[in-house]
């Protein structure tokens, strides 16, 4: 059983090496009962991310690898790589490791041991532990509320950067995932639901300040408007699928 931990990055030379080595050290010390690899997805980066990734790969062999993807967008990078991955399970986490690494087994074991197809981290469940600003918390709650109304789901957190899916299942729905940026997560969950995949939400320990020197790339006002527009577009796609473009496989 091979699990790939994917780290999509855009110009993250500031924290790239530290985060990758922290994840590598954690996985090595835990001695998981499954095989694993760390995959750095270099997403249209123009800084030294490629050189850092090459160095890490040369030092640690196949345990740390990388893929250079020229097109912009986290969702695009994940879709391209996951669609051709040979791993049994593909997962991703944000490069700032905002979710505690102690949640890794909570993410992977439900797929390996309990037959789930998709596992999603949630910052909104009762057992979740979060450290974030009031504004960020309010925006997440608002987005979840709007997405529930527009898309009719009952998930508590669509956008947490901590997810894992059976690779074969992802390839079934990949053609339906159109967004190449942050909305990828919502499409991943909704199309998994529409195709009756077995989905589990898990509580996570999440902190937006694990790397205080790194500025967030989230613009709340701009991104909130885009999310609402994308929710409406997705709802219309589901209600009125283009001929030959069924949302179910």
From TrEMBL:
InterPro entries on file: Glyco_trans_2-like, Nucleotide-diphossugar_trans
A Pfam family matched in the record: Glycos_transf_2
Listed GO biological process terms: protein N-linked glycosylation
Domain Glycosyltransferase 2-like intervals: 6-170
Protein name: Glycosyltransferase 2-like domain-containing protein
